[in-house]
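Chapter review. Work through the record for Anaphase-promoting complex subunit 4 WD40 domain-containing protein before attempting the end-of-chapter questions.
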Amino acid sequence: MFIYLSKKIAIPNQIKLHSLSWNPEQGWIACGGENGLLKVLKLDSTGTTVTGELNTSKPRGVAAPSNLSMNQTLEGHNGGVMCVTWNANYRKLTTSDENGLIIVWMLHKGMWSEEMINNRNKSVVRDMKWTADGQKICIIYEDGAVIVGSVEGTRLWGKDLDAHLRFVEWSPDSRNIVFVTKSNEIHMYDYHGNKIKPLPLYALENNKKQESKKGDDDDWSDEDEQEEDTTIIGIHWYDGTEGHIDADAPTLAVAFRNGKCQIGRGEEDPKATLIDTRMTLTQCKWNAKGNVLALAGSVKSKSREGEERQVSQVQFYSPMGVHIKTLKVPGANGISAMSWEGSGLRIALAVDAYIYFANIRPDYMWGAFGNTLVYAHNKPDRTDVCVTFWNMKSNERYTKYLKGVKFIRGAGENCLLVLRNSLPAGAPPSSMDDNDENNNGEDSGPKPNQHTLMLCNSIGSPVDTKYIDIVPKFVEMTPFHVIVSDFRSVYIWQYRTNVSKLTSSDAGNGATAMLRRNTGRERMLDIEEVAANPAQTIENFKPKAGRIKDGICAITASKKNLIVARESGTIHRYSLPHISLENKYAIRQRPAHIRLNCDSTKLSIIDNGSILSVLDLDSNNDSSDGKEGTYGQLLQFERKDAWDLQWADDNPDLFAVMEKTRMYVFRNFHPEEPCQSSGYLSNFSDLQIQAIMLDDVMASPENPDRDMVLDFETKSLKDARELITNVGLTEATAYIEQHAHPRLWRLLAEAALEALELQVAEKAFVNVGDYPGIQYVKRLSGLGERMKQRAEVAAYFQRFDEAEAILREIDRKDLANELRIRLGDWFRVVALVQTGGGDDKMLMKAWNKIGEYYADRFKWQKAATYFSQAKNLMKMIECYYRLDDYDGMEKGVELMSEGNPELMEVGRMFESVGLHKQAVRCFQKAGDVKAAIDTCVLLNYWEEAVKLAEAHGFSQIEGLLAKYAGHLLSKGDKLQAVELYRKADKATEAARLLAGIAEDVGKRQVDPLRAKKLHVLAALEVERYRKKALDLSTMSTTKGKSVAATTAATLDTLMTADAESRAGGGAGDAGRKVMDNAWRGAEAYHYFLLSHRQLYSGDVDAAMKTAIRCAEFEDILEPKDIYSLIALTAYHSSHLNICSRAFIKLETLPGLDEATSDAIQTLALDIFKDQAPRNPSHLPTCYITCLETGQPYNACTITGRAVLDARTVGCKVCGHLMLEHELSVSNRKNCALCHSPIPGINFSIMEEEEEEGGD
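C-alpha cells for Anaphase-promoting complex subunit 4 WD40 domain-containing protein:
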C-alpha cells in the first residue's frame, strides 16, 4: 500500500478542530471545532454524484481527485463541537457541543438546515453512534445518561448508568451496545438497555500474553518509553456492510493511549490480536471495507540538534495485526480527529486548525495475463471470496467463489491463485508430499496448515494444483515458473516448459511424477544455503524452524533469473530453470517492490520509503586498486513517491513508473512528459502502456467496463504519429531510424501503404521482419493500376466497403465479387451477382453459403429458405428436420430423384421420429426395400412389414415374426404377442391367443367381465379373418374371371380358412373352439354376467331365464356355478320346478365330494319338504329343453329372454338378436354383446309402430 498527503484545508481564524466525520455514501465531510465551528465540505466524488449517479466529470484515469466543491458553515452551536456523526442511509448529520446541545441537520435544496434540536442541560455529550442501517442512534453523556432514539426523532428508551462514559459502539447486527467508561471498562448491553456482560481487555494483561507488532521502517529505543497511560482512546466495531476479507477476520478494535491496540473477532476472543504501535494514540478507525485499521497518534523524536519534539503519525494495520504502512503528518499537537472516505481511497486528518487529506493506493488482489484481468473482492452476503475472470476485450466474465484467497498473479496464458487451507472443487489433484510409500506420486489432497497453489486458465478452470507447506509471504509468476516464499524458504515450480507445454500434461503415473520432480519441476531453496547449487527436491528439503534475522522482503523473476531481496539490502541472483546462485549484490535500501527488465540486466527497486532506484546487474564495478570488483552497480537514478513500475516487454531501457497520480515513462533514464493517472500498470509493450483503474473496477466489481482499462502511448510513438500525419514520410522515416522500434516501423509501413509509397512500406516491413508484409507489397506493386492498389490497401486495413466502392467505380464488379468471396461476405456476393457481377452458379453457391451461415447459428427456418433457393435439398430437409416440420421434409423428398443415395439418410431421419410411412417411402424411392421392412419391424408396424415382404418376396419376415412372438410368449407377455399378431394382420393367431388368455382368466373365477372382453376380442379377430378371406375370394371377379371360376376360388378360400381354423395353433382347445364358434365364449360370460345384474337389481324372473340360457355352456363356465345360479334365481322367482331340476343337476354333477353332495341334498330337502316343485306359470319349452339337454335357443342379448315371435334386430358384427321393443325402451345404439354400433335404427318410428299395433 502507498499513501501520501495530497491536500490541506485551513480553517479560518485558526480555530482548532475537535471532530471530523466523512459521509461514506455521498462524500460530505463534517468538521467541528472551538467556538461553535461546524462546517460541511465536499470534495469531488471518486465515482458518484450527490444523487448517486455516475460522475462523468471526474478526470479520466485519476482516482480520488481533491477539488473542493462545497463549503457550508452551519450555525447553531455556541460551544465547541465535540462530536459529529453521519446517518448515510437517511442523509442526516447529528452534531453535539460541549454544552450538551444536540442538533440533527438535513439536506434541503442543496443546503444543510436544522431538523431537530435537543438540549439536556445537565452534562456534555461524549459520543453518538448510528446503527449500520441508520434506524437508531445511541447518545451517551459523560454523567452516565444513555438515550436511544429512532431516525424519526422518537425516544426509544433512556437509562442512567452508574459510570462516567467515554465511548459507545453498536454491534454489527445492531442488537447489542458497547459502552466504554472512564475507568477503562467495557460493558455490553442489549438493544433494550439490559446489561449482558463486561468485555475482557487482553491488551492490559501481563506481558506474557501480549503480542507486539511494530512497523518495519521505524526505529525505536527504550529511552522513549515512559509511564504507560492505559486510557481507552477509541473503539470501533466494523459493521461488515462491505463484506469480510476472511470469514475469521477480526472486527472489534480497542485502542489505548499507551500505544496498545486489541483486535478481536467479536466481543470475546481469547486469541485476539494485540498490537504495540509504540505511539501515544489518539484515534482508531477501520476503513469502510474493514481490511485496514488506522491508528493515529504521536511519537517523540529527536532532531539533528538534539531537540526533542512530537511527530504525528498514522500507522496502518491489516485485520491480522500486520503493519502495512506509516504516514507522517505535520503538526506538533497531534491528530485530534480522523475519518475514512467511503471508498477507502482517502483519509481525512484533523490537526490543529487544518484538515489533511491523504490518498491511498491499496494493495488489491489482482493479476493480468493476455486479455484477462483476474481480481478478488468480498460480498456482504458471503463469507468466501469472489474471484472474477474478466476478458477485457470481449467483456465476458466468469466467477469463482473460493475461501482463503491470499494472492493472485498472472503471466503468460495462466494465472495463479494462492489459497489457505482449501481445495477448490474441480481442481486437478497434485501433491507436494511424496514421502508416503503408498502414495505412488499421486495426490491425497491438502494437509492441515498447507496452502494451495491453483493454476487457472482464462475462464477460471483449474489447470493444475500444488500444495506447499511454507506460509506464502511473497509470490511471483512468469510464463514458465511460479515462485512462492516465506521469510527464508523459496519454492520454485516450473509449471510450463519452453516448448509451450504444461508440465501437468505429462504422463500422470507415479514413476513419471517422481521423475519430473527429480529433474527439477518443483524445487525448494533456502537463502541461507551457500552451496553453488542450493536448490533441493521437495523430498530432500528440510525447512528450518523460526524466522531468520535477515529474512526475505521481496522477490521477482524473469524467464532466466530469480531475484531474492533480503531485509539488509542483500540481493541474491539465481539462474532459472537450473537454480544456481549467480551473484550477490548489496544496497543500502530495504527493498519493498522489485522488478527485472526484459533481458534481466537491470533491477528496479522501490524501498519502504517509496524511493525508486535501479541496479545494473551486469556492470563490472572495478575497485580503485586495479583489482576486479564485484558485478552490479546502483545507478545514479532516483525517484520519490513511486508506488508501481512496469518494464517494457520489448525494450530493456524503457519502463513506466507511477508517482502519486502521475505516470512517467523513462527511456534510458530520461523522463518523458508525465500523464495524469492512478491506474495500476499491467502491461508495457509496443510502446503502449496498459493501466487498469482498479479503484473503479472494485467500486463495481460485478459490472466492469472497458473504459476502466486505459492505454497510454509513449512520446516516441506519439511523435512518430504526429510526423507522419503533419510533416511527411521522409521526416518520419528519419525519426524512426533514430528511435528504431518494431511498433514505429509498423506505423510507418501502414502510413506508407495508405500513401501508396511502396518502397517506404517495403523498407519498413524489412525492418520489422514481417515477411508476409514484404510479399504483400510485392503483390501490390504487381497490380500496376493505382485504383486497384488503393482498393487492395483499403481491404488490407479492413475497410472493405471502401475497397468495393473503388472496384465498382472502375467497373470491376468481378474483382469486388472476389473480394467479398475472400471475406466470406456472401450477402454482398448475392447483391453483386444480382447486379451483374457473376453467373447463376455463383448465385447458387452464395445462397448455399448463406444457408450454412444461418444453420451455424441455429436459425433453421432462414437456412431452409436459402437452401431451397440453392436447390440443396438435403440441407433443406435437415433444417426442416431440426424444425420438426415433417410436411416440409416430405415435400423435399418428392423433389428428390429416384435412387438418390441421400434418400437413405432422410429415411433414417423419419425413422428416428417414428414416421414409418414417410421412412418407407424414402427407402423404397432409394431402392432399398429391405431397409423399409426393417423400419416397419423396428417401429412395430408388422402389417406393413408383412405386406412389403410378401410383395417383394422376403420370406424371412415370417420367421422373424414367429421368433419375436415366441420371445414375448416366453416372457409371459401374451397381450403384447396379441398386439404383434394384430399389427402383422395374423388374425387367427391373435384370436387363438386371446381365447387362451380368456380361458385362463375364466378359470381363476375372479374377473368374468375381463374374460368376456377377451372372448369378444378373439371373436372380432376371427370375424376380421373371415371377412378378409371372403374379400380375397371375391377379388377375382374384378379380373375378368367367369362365374364358375369365381365360385371355385371362393370355395378354395373357404376350405383353406376352414383348414386353418382346425389347425388349432398354440392356444390349445380354446384356440380351436374360437375358430369353430367364435362368439360362444363371449355369449357364455355375457349371459352369466347379465343374470347376476338382473338378480341384484331385483328382476329375479328375467335373471332365472337368462341363467337357464347359460346351461348350454358347461364346457366354458363351471357347471356348479351355472346350476347354482339357476337354482337361486328360480327359488327367488318361485319357479320351484326349475329349482328342483337345477338341484337334480347339481346332485348328479361328477366329482362332487361327499360333504358338498350332502349339503346340496340337505338344502333341497329344506326347500321342497313343505313346497311342491311347481312353477307359477307356464314356461316355453325351449327353456326346459335347454336346462335338461343344453340345447341352445335364440335369446335376446339385452334381456336374456327367448326370442319366439317378436320383432328382432340382428347385429351385423356378431349376428346375435335383440328384441326390437327392448332396443327402443333402453334407447340402445350398440349391440349388448359385442358393443358394435347398430346402424339405421329410428326409435321414433319403432315407437309409432308399437303404438299403432297397440291400437
